[in-house]
Amino acid sequence: MSPGAFLSGLVFALGLGLAGMLDPGRVLAFLDLAGPRWDPSLMLVLGAAVGVYALGSPRFTADLPPPRRELNLPLILGAALFGVGWGLVGLCPGPALVDLTGGSGDLVLFVAAMLTGMALLGLRRLTPP
């Protein structure tokens, strides 16, 4: 791992913690658009991330391939599964990994299931059609 990647991950983790995005209740409150507990703070975190990306993108992503723009079934199903998982638990993969430091048994189970799903997808990709 390069020092730049490690530093980026560390800054990301610290930012999630400082912004309170390791709290599933806060994330679920953001997803509760019609409810009385709606919390828009996740939009501020997203806005800051987009701003930083916009400033650094031309310098650090020049050698990346262009993004694929077509919609296909795996993309739609993957996005739906990610959304359902995020909505049920209130955590996406980044905050879940950072929050593992708390040692919650439920969180360890969540991350284990997430890693198992990623491994199964990797095996599927290795299987010839």
Summarize, please.
The chain has 129 residues and is mainly alpha-helical.
Task: Give keywords.
129 residues; 71% helix; mainly alpha
Descriptive account of the structure:
- The structure is a single chain.
- Helices cover 71% and strands 0% of the residues.
- The protein has 129 residues and is an all-alpha fold.
- The longest helix is centred in the C-terminal third of the chain and has 22 residues, at 105-126.
- The two termini are 33 Å apart.
What order do the helices and strands follow? Answer: HHHHHH
Structural class designation: mainly alpha
By DSSP (H or I, 4+ residues per run), the number of helices equals 6
Low-pLDDT stretches: none
The CA-CA distance between the termini, in Å, is 33 Å
What is the strand tally?
0
Topology:
Elements: H1 3-19, H2 24-31, H3 41-60, H4 73-89, H5 93-99, H6 105-126
Helix pairs in contact: 2-4, 5-6
